[in-house]
Amino acid sequence: MTIHIEGLVAIAIFYLLILCVGIWAAWKNKHSGEAEGTDRSETIMVGGRDIGLFVGGFTMTATWVGGGYINGTAEYVYLPAYGLAWAQAPFGYALSLVVGGLFFAKPMRSRGYVTMLDPFQQIYGKRMGGLLFIPALMGEIFWSAAILSALGATLSVIVDINIKMSVVISALIAIFYTLVGGLYSVAYTDVVQLFCIFLGLWISVPFALTNPAVSDITITAVKQVYQSPWRGSIHKGDTWVWIDNFCLLMLGGIPWQVYFQRVLSASSANYAQVLSFLAAFGCLVMAVPSVLIGAIGASTDWNQTSYGAIPPKDKDQADMILPIVLQHLCPPFVSFFGLGAVSAAVMSSADSSILSASSMFARNIYQLAFRQSASDREIVWVMRITIFVFGGLATLMALVTGTVYGLWYLSSDLVYVIIFPQLISVLFVKGTNTYGSVAAYLFGMVLRIGGGEPYLGMPPFIYYPGWTVEQRKHHVTGEMEDVVIQKFPFKTISMIASFLGNVAVSHLAKYLFESGKISHKYDFLDAVVSKHSGEIMDKTTLVTRGNNIGLSEMAPVKPRLSVTLAAAFGTVGEAVTLLSNSPERSMRADANVLRWDYKRKHIQLVLIG
């Protein structure tokens, strides 16, 4: 195996630049939020909520424009059976950001949440929040593993270095600067990475287009030259599949912590919306060079190149068309610069996913579910440990699991059919409760898994209308096998069923308990009779009057006092109260006054009636 020294030097310089920017961002913002009294853990998670339009727009765009985005777009444009018509990611994710900005960014940011799971735990309780954490974690970890695996394969194509070594080095760099600076390091490195992606790919396109082996892409778009036209087409029998996949990208791209981490880090709710719209435009712009590279691959006479007479699609290397074009149709110095772009794309997504997974675990699982009395320093260390653990887990899966893409496909589907309908419920639908949430969780999971997953070799046990059997080559063994293909839009139907199940079961449970048809003692989830929404959220005592918690019912309190007061209220007639930051302010609760004596650190209960 020949190692290209120039390529290694180029990659080393790029990685060193990213590492230095990450460390600089951490140093620059090490005291951020201290003046406002913001916890260090919250600063790591949401960057002190002072991310501006410039950095915020870049980091939100870079979150979507990853290795899978640019490689996958080029691959689908290149493949004869698909073409541009099936390259849905650019428009799907762009519309996802538009929909997220229009409907989800403002309510999430204005209510001061720290993670995507906060509203679920606020409405449905900490146990349901833990259940919803599972598909969210799976999505982030499998996504990181998939793009790290793609990076290793890309580096091996152009530089001829060991795949495992390249994956480990890339992961270590991303983990290190994420450990040091949290969201600040991730955001600032995203600016550099997105610039490298844009510059690297656009520099490569003119050289590839003018290569003598490449035909006019405007002709190959509509006429068959070396393969089917790269414009592609949608056959009548595949229409519902196309719609199902597009809905998955457009709506399933919303309920991800990597997106809401940027939304919640914005300096205001309006800024959060603007960031989403800027990122939508950025996704479309960044997809253009990938589309052109895929079209170039479909317009190339590979017999005239150093690659050989057999096209990549016939060697089962269509997923590597972007690095292959960079290597064989561009000069060496251009291909190495393009390689830096691919590496940047991968790292910009991997660091975000690792930070998102650790943020949800530290806050929603460790702190709110198990250790409500945990100090801020303790939460910070939990985050650091889980960043390392989740990063290591993603790296290990990228190295040893041949089905990492299939695992990500399935987990992203579960995010769509389970989390998205419940996110709509907690933000916009009144009256849903934990019973409906559990039912929706089960409905969505069974209906989606029941449809099978061909990439994992998982056969269906629910055969939806229009299913067919096709012969396909196994991606690991290379053997031909019979695969059941679902032509029905079962993913979107599963999502809708999950949403309707949540609403129906919630109202049924409420009716049965409130009418007395089921004894109150059987409300074991405390979802109807005993309102769980008085549970303590970090820095906030949540008070409920009915089914929804309004903005006027939320007041900040001192972090260390909220837990003490919550414990006391549990023994003083289940008092429902709000506490402000002022230690001398007393709040009325029914006919009594509860006063926090700051000096003596105890509660005085004074009768006034």
From TrEMBL:
CDD domains: SLC5sbd_CHT. Its main location: membrane. One of its GO terms (molecular function) is choline:sodium symporter activity. It is found in: Presynaptic cell membrane. It is a multi-pass membrane protein. Keywords: Glycoprotein, Ion transport, Membrane, Neurotransmitter biosynthesis, Sodium, Sodium transport, Symport, Transmembrane, Transmembrane helix, Transport. GO terms for biological process: acetylcholine biosynthetic process; neuromuscular synaptic transmission; synaptic transmission, cholinergic. InterPro entries: Choline_transporter (IPR052244), Na/Glc_symporter_sf (IPR038377), Na/solute_symporter (IPR001734). Gene3D superfamilies: Sodium/glucose cotransporter (1.20.1730.10). It comes from the Eukaryota. It catalyses: choline(out) + n Na(+)(out) = choline(in) + n Na(+)(in). Signal peptide: none annotated. The chain crosses the membrane at residues 7-27, 85-105, 131-159, 165-184, 191-209, 239-259, 271-296, 333-358, 379-400, 406-428, 435-451. One of its GO terms (cellular component) is presynaptic membrane. The keyword Electron transport does not apply. The keyword Secreted does not apply. Belongs to the sodium:solute symporter (SSF) (TC 2.A.21) family. Homooligomerizes at cell surface. Interacts with SEC14L1; may regulate SLC5A7. High-affinity Na(+)-coupled choline transmembrane symporter. Functions as an electrogenic, voltage-dependent transporter with variable charge/choline stoichiometry. Choline uptake and choline-induced current is also Cl(-)-dependent where Cl(-) is likely a regulatory ion rather than cotransported ion. Plays a critical role in acetylcholine (ACh) synthesis by taking up the substrate choline from the synaptic cleft into the presynaptic nerve terminals after neurotransmitter release. This is High affinity choline transporter 1. It comes from Gasterosteus aculeatus aculeatus. The lineage of its organism: Eukaryota, Metazoa, Chordata, Craniata, Vertebrata.
